[in-house]
Amino acid sequence: MTEPAHYFAGKRSVSRKLALQALYRWQLNCGPWQDLVLEFGDAEDMPKADREYFRELVEGVCGSRETLDTQLSSWLDRKPELLDPIEHAVLLIGLFELTSKPEVPYRVAINEAINLSKRFGATDGHKFVNAVLDRAAREVRPHEH
Questions:
Q1: Rounded CA gap, 51 and 35, in Å?
Q2: Using CA atoms, how far apart are residues 11 and 38, in angstroms rounded to an integer?
Q3: Which residues does 76 contact at the CB level (< 8 Å), separation at least 6?
Q4: What are the C-alpha distances in Å from 10 to residues 6, 17, 90?
Q5: Please, are residues 87 and 117 in contact by the beta-carbon 8 Å criterion?
C-alpha cells in the first residue's frame, strides 16, 4: 500500500521543525552534526518525522554553513551572524533546500520556512524570511519562476 503524498509532506514538515530545533541548538553550542542527529533521534516528534530527511537537513546545513551564509549575505541587510538564531536557522534550512533539494518545489521550501518562522520566530520574522527566500529563489531557481 502506498502512502498519500500529504503523508510524506507532513513527515517532512516535522523533519524541518526538528532540524530547526537542532540547528538552533547548534548555533548556541557548536558541535559535530552527528551529535545533533543522535541527540534529536529520541525527540518526542521523531516517530512522526522523516528521519532520513532530518539527517540530510542537519548534515547539509552544518556541512555547508559558510557557503550558505555567503549566499545569504547577498540578500540580507546585515551579516548572517547578526540574525536572530531562529530566523537564521530557518533561512539556512530554506536556502539549503533551494540549492540542494531540486525535488522540493521552491514554493514548498519557502512556505515551510514561513510556517516555521511564524511558529517559532519573532512576530514579523516570517515576512523577513519570505522576502529573503523569495529573492534567493529568483536567483538560484530562475527556471521555476
A1: 15
A2: 19
A3: 83, 132
A4: 6, 11, 17
A5: yes
DSSP 113-126: HHHHHHHHS-TTHH
Q: pLDDT tens digits for 13-55? A: 999 999 999 998 898 888 788 888 877 888 888 789 899 999 9
State the cell numbers at 93: 534550512
User: DSSP label at 77?
Assistant: S
Rounded Cα distance between 44 and 64, Å, is 27
What secondary structure does DSSP assign to 16-57, as a single string?
HHHHHHHHHHHHHS---HHHHHHHHTT-TTGGGS-HHHHHHH
pLDDT digits (tens, 9 = 90+) for 53-84: 999 999 999 999 999 999 999 999 889 989 99
